[in-house]
Each structure stands twice: as structure tokens, then as C-alpha cells.
Specification:
Low-confidence stretches: none
Number of strands: 20
Strand content: 15-25%
Distance between the termini: 13 Å
Largest sheet: 6 strands, mixed
Number of helices: 10
């Protein structure tokens, strides 16, 4: 694993690039069709069936991996299962090598976040519309564009390279946006290559780290009634105090952020968000229950259980009436090497295809790289507005991603 790996011969690189180029329209349509399939939490099969078809057409042996909820609950780094897993699975395709080579795992997630009804999109969020050199829609950037580019790269490799020694594994996982048990179950099932690439929208950068993340649900329950008898404090004030306490934990975590690997990306890398607020039925009635769902990021010097304990202690002190429950993410931070045999090979492939240097970077969010053992990098297209309105992915960068990944993969597997 520590031996350098040269790029494939020029003739093979050119053949792979041509194979990707012939699939340009297929790549655009595949991305658009994936966007049209509304693969929000619980509806992932709409996209997974298409991914399985693509892999089968490229002569990959396809299997399904369904997470085990009880095993996930027992693992302190797995996600809390959000929904039952019956009928919901990750797709894994394998193209066996001739033997004796290094394996490679190409991965992407098919699930997307919902569309906020209040967002004023200028196009259909589920339309997969192509305009102005971009493909628009929910998930176009995060990360159906990268997933489609990896599928096209895999198809090009299957067409051009029939003599590779290492196994090529391609996975499309569920629940990356809500706990991570898709990739967790794929890796636990043994699909963990000697190196891994994840197609997150990295802007054609090499991202080698991601923050930790936990989700918490803060709930205040009390007696409902007319507001005339409510007094000067109530459930909202309790919930506000609890949220402020988590803000204090956020500030504490960010005090030393400049000294962390994530300080290179932001002066406030460990963000806290109140993503959902629920409760109340009438303006003049005291709500029987108020709930806030909170996300908090953290760095390499803490684990999820420690952060959960900090949140619980802070909320208990500031607002004893607030109940704290944890859900979805208990994701640890991760950081891989930005140099070495695999990163250097990816950089060489990037230089060969795009004629410019590959820049390293880090995410101030979590992703599935935290479950991988061995070299892991995120490399994907240019995109914007993900999780927001008018999400998009740059079409030229989709083809560039596929070409770079095909060149790097063929060289690694040789």
C-alpha cells in the first residue's frame, strides 16, 4: 500500500477519456433522472433501482446491503435508525480483477434532503432541468451528480480495461443525510477497498477530512391553557434557554478551532443549527409541547458521546424542564492523509486531465468517509446551493470528475 503507483499509459488514459466523452449525454440524463426520483429518507429505492440497472449494464455483479438496526444501535459511531430498514438497502456492484492487485471503492449516496416548502425555487426542484451550463434540482449537487459521474467512470473502465488486477467496487448508499447507516453497513459487510473515493461535491478539490456531528431533540412539555393565565415565563422561555446553552457549547468548541485541521477552512468550523421547530396550535394558547431539533459539529479531539454529554449537561443546568434526546447522527470527525500513494495518484490524474494542480481541502460537515479504513478522499464536481433552493451542479465538471476518477481508478487497479 505504501508503494507509489504511476498513472496508466497515455494510450489507456486517452481511451478512458474517450469512453467518458462518448457517455456525456448519458451522464447528463442519468444525473437528471436521479434528480427526478425523489429519494428523500424512506424513498431511496426510487433511485437505487436505477443505480442497480446501470451497474448491471456495465457487467458489475450487484448485491444489496440492508442495515441491521440492532447492530447499529449497539455501535457508538453508527447512526440511530430513523425508519425501519425493510425494503431499504444500499447497492453494491463489483467488477472483479484478475487477482493480486489493489482494490478500489467508489461510493456515493442516493438520499437527499427534503425541499423546504417555503423556498421559492426558480425551477422545479425535482425536474432535473438543464440551463446555463448547469443541471438544477434537489440532489443535483449533493450528490447525485457525483454518483452519476462515478457510475459513468465505472462503465468506461469496464469497457476499456479488461486486464486490471484489482477489484473495483461501486456503492450507492442510503441515509448519508440522516445517520450514515448505509455506508456503515456496506463497510461492515466487507466492501472496504484498499482505497476509497466518495463523490461529494468537492469542487474538483481533494477533500480529506470532515467534522463530527450529533443531532439532538430538545423538548419542553407543560400544561396548556389560555395565555391570560400564563405568567411571564413558559415553555418557550425554557426552550430558548436550552438552545442558548447549546450555543455556549458551540462557542466553546470553536475557541480552539484555529489550531485544528478544520481551521484552514473556516474561523467557525463547528457549526450549530436549529433546523426544525415544532409546537403550538393557537397564538393565544400556551403550547402543551415545544420541540427544537439541533445539529452541532465538532472536531477530532472529541467523540460523539462526549459531545452528547456536554449538550445534556449544559441544557440541564440552563433549563431543567427541557428533555434531551439524541437521534440520527453520532458521527465522529475524521481526517485522512492528503499525500501518499493514493492521494498522489489522484493528483496526477487530475493534473493529466485538467492540466492544473489538485488542491487539498476539508469539509466542515460530516460525510461517509468516517467509516472507511485505509486511504479515503472525497472528489466530485462543482456545485452550489445544496440543502437550499435552486441547487445545481456544473455539467462540465461532471464529465471532468468522471474522466479523472476513471484515470485514477484504472491506474490504481492495474
Amino acid at each position: 500500500m505504501n508503494e507509489p503507483r504511476p498513472l496508466a499509459p497515455r494510450a489507456r488514459q486517452e481511451a478512458l477519456r474517450a469512453a467518458v466523452g462518448r457517455r456525456r449525454e448519458q451522464l447528463i440524463e442519468l444525473t437528471a433522472e436521479l434528480v427526478r426520483r425523489r429519494t428523500v429518507l424512506g424513498a431511496e429505492e426510487l433511485g437505487q433501482s436505477l443505480v442497480a440497472e446501470q451497474l448491471t449494464a456495465s457487467d458489475f455483479a450487484v448485491t444489496r446491503i440492508e442495515p441491521d438496526a440492532s447492530q447499529a444501535l449497539a455501535d457508538p459511531y453508527a447512526g440511530y435508525p430513523a425508519l425501519p430498514y425493510a425494503g431499504r438497502s444500499s447497492v453494491v456492484g463489483k467488477l472483479p480483477g484478475t487477482g493480486g492487485g489493489r482494490s478500489l471503492h467508489l461510493s456515493g449516496h442516493v438520499d437527499v434532503v427534503p425541499v423546504d416548502p417555503a423556498d421559492d425555487w426558480t425551477c422545479d426542484p425535482w425536474g432535473g432541468v438543464v440551463a446555463d451550463g448547469r443541471l438544477w434540482g434537489r440532489g443535483a449537487g449533493d450528490m447525485k451528480g457525483g454518483l452519476a459521474a462515478y457510475l459513468v467512470a465505472a462503465a468506461a473502465i469496464a469497457e476499456v480495461c479488461d486486464d486490471l488486477r484489482g477489484d473495483l467496487v461501486v456503492s450507492s448508499v442510503i441515509e448519508e443525510e440522516c445517520g450514515g447507516n448505509g455506508m456503515w453497513s456496506v463497510v461492515n459487510a466487507g466492501h472496504n477497498g484498499d482505497a476509497t473515493l466518495i463523490g461529494e461535491p468537492s469542487g474538483l478539490q481533494m477533500m480529506h477530512a470532515g467534522t463530527g456531528v450529533v443531532w439532538a431533540r430538545l423538548r419542553v412539555a407543560g400544561a396548556s391553557g389560555h395565555s391570560a393565565a400564563a405568567g411571564r415565563t413558559g415553555s418557550f422561555e425554557e426552550l430558548a434557554a436550552a438552545v442558548a446553552a447549546v450555543r455556549d457549547v458551540e462557542a466553546e468548541l470553536n475557541q480552539a478551532a484555529a489550531q485544528s485541521v478544520f481551521g484552514s477552512a473556516s474561523d467557525w468550523p463547528f457549526g450549530m443549527t436549529v433546523g426544525q421547530i415544532e409546537g403550538g396550535v393557537w397564538t393565544s394558547s400556551v403550547p402543551a409541547e415545544l420541540t427544537a431539533r439541533v445539529r452541532l459539529g465538532f472536531g477530532l479531539d472529541h467523540d460523539p458521546a462526549t459531545i452528547q454529554a456536554k449538550i445534556r449537561a449544559a441544557v440541564c443546568q440552563a433549563s431543567p424542564e427541557t428533555q434531551v434526546r439524541f437521534e440520527a447522527f453520532r458521527a465522529r470527525a475524521w481526517c485522512g492523509d492528503a499525500s501518499g500513494p493514493f492521494p498522489d495518484l489522484l493528483a496526477a490524474a487530475h493534473q493529466s486531465v485538467l492540466a492544473r494542480e489538485l488542491r487539498p481541502g476539508v469539509f466542515t460537515a460530516t460525510n461517509d468517509g468516517r467509516y472507511v479504513t485505509g486511504p479515503c478522499l472525497c472528489y466530485g464536481p462543482i456545485a452550489g446551493n445544496y440543502h437550499g433552493k435552486d441547487e445545481w451542479v456544473d455539467i462540465e465538471s461532471l464529465e471532468q470528475t468522471a474522466a479523472v476518477v476513471a484515470a485514477a481508478a484504472a491506474s490504481w487497479l492495474a
